[in-house]
Design brief:
Blueprint lengths: L3 H12 L2 E5 L3 H6 L6 H15 L5 E4 L2 H4 L2 H17 L3 E8 L3 H12 L9 E4 L9 H9 L3 E7 L6 H4 L9 H16 L8 E5 L5 H4 L11 E3 L12 H5 L6 E5 L1 H4 L2 H20 L2
Parallel strand pairs: 1-2, 1-8, 2-3, 3-4, 4-5, 5-6, 6-7, 7-8
């Protein structure tokens, strides 16, 4: 199997940088005339997967909206993940797990092990117990040809005070996280290839103020929320991310899902076209 970074790069070349979020909010379930149940989120997720097939290359289920239904919700998520893999979509599980030692190893086993019930192509993780605590997850991902996205500079305003704070070397915390990811990829990736460990950087973040406007070497994929409902414009990807644009994955959820079950396929196609134009793909 090919390394995640290599597969992701090929997918972006084929379909552009759009990532379709699968976020079955209660309000969206109601708008789609689906019940607020595990069966409802399952049907919602499967419809999004079906609409994304052939129009986008990556989907990102938000785990929490399935998790709230307990074991039935996880069973629904398993079906959605399986359907997405069968449709040859790359799947990023937006789980934001973060812990230490054997606990983090168990999270990695759940989301990154081939054949696991919750198998995804990549998972989002939190570095706030130390990026070093994630190294066994990076290793497990590399062994399974999977990916990891580490929170670096998120788009929510509550994160700014922490992520913009500076360490003893004078770097923002966002920059420090990115540097540690860069170091890992440098040791694990061939020069010129995309690393399989990426970062989450919001499209509404002031990159220069955080000191994270410089491209990584080797290139690290950037999962970028904040487009659409949160205010960033897909047509402005290159203006926002500059020299890092080629590795950006533009994540869009509510602006697509709000089109409803009858309009979602056209919404994905339109947003995918906008994202390709904004990134000059």
């Amino acid at each position: 199997m090919t390394a995640f970074g290599t597969r992701l790069r090929a997918t972006v070349a084929s379909f552009g940088p759009l990532v379709v979020g699968i976020d079955p909010h209660r309000s969206l379930l109601a708008a789609w005339e689906l019940p607020d149940t595990a069966g409802g989120v399952r049907d919602f997720g499967l419809r999004v997967v079906d609409a994304a097939h052939g129009r986008a290359g990556v989907v990102k289920p938000q785990v929490s909206f399935f998790e709230r239904f307990g074991s039935a919700g996880f069973a629904a998520l398993e079906d959605v993940l399986s359907a997405a893999r069968a449709a040859e979509l790359l799947v990023i599980a937006d789980a934001k797990r973060g812990d230490i030692g054997s606990t983090m190893d168990a999270y990695a086993a759940a989301w990154l092990t081939p054949g696991a019930a919750l198998e995804a192509d990549a998972v989002t993780v939190s570095p706030y117990l130390g990026v070093g605590a994630l190294e066994s997850t990076f290793t497990a991902a590399a062994q399974a040809q999977k990916g990891v996205f580490v929170l670096s500079a998120t788009s929510n305003p509550e994160a700014e005070a922490l992520q913009a704070a500076h360490d003893e070397a004078g770097r923002s915390i966002s920059r420090a996280v990115l540097d540690e990811v860069d170091a890992w990829n440098a040791g694990a990736s061939s020069r010129g290839e995309w690393g399989s460990v990426g970062v989450v950087i919001g499209a509404t973040v002031d990159l220069q103020a955080r000191g994270i406007e410089t491209p990584a070497d080797p290139p690290a994929p950037i999962l970028a929320p904040g487009f659409g409902h949160q205010g960033a414009d897909l047509r402005q990807i290159r203006r926002i991310f500059g020299a890092q644009t080629d590795t950006v994955l533009a994540s869009v959820s509510r602006s697509i899902l709000g089109a409803g079950p009858d309009g979602i396929a056209d919404a994905i196609a339109a947003q995918a076209s906008a994202a390709r134009g904004g990134a000059d793909v």
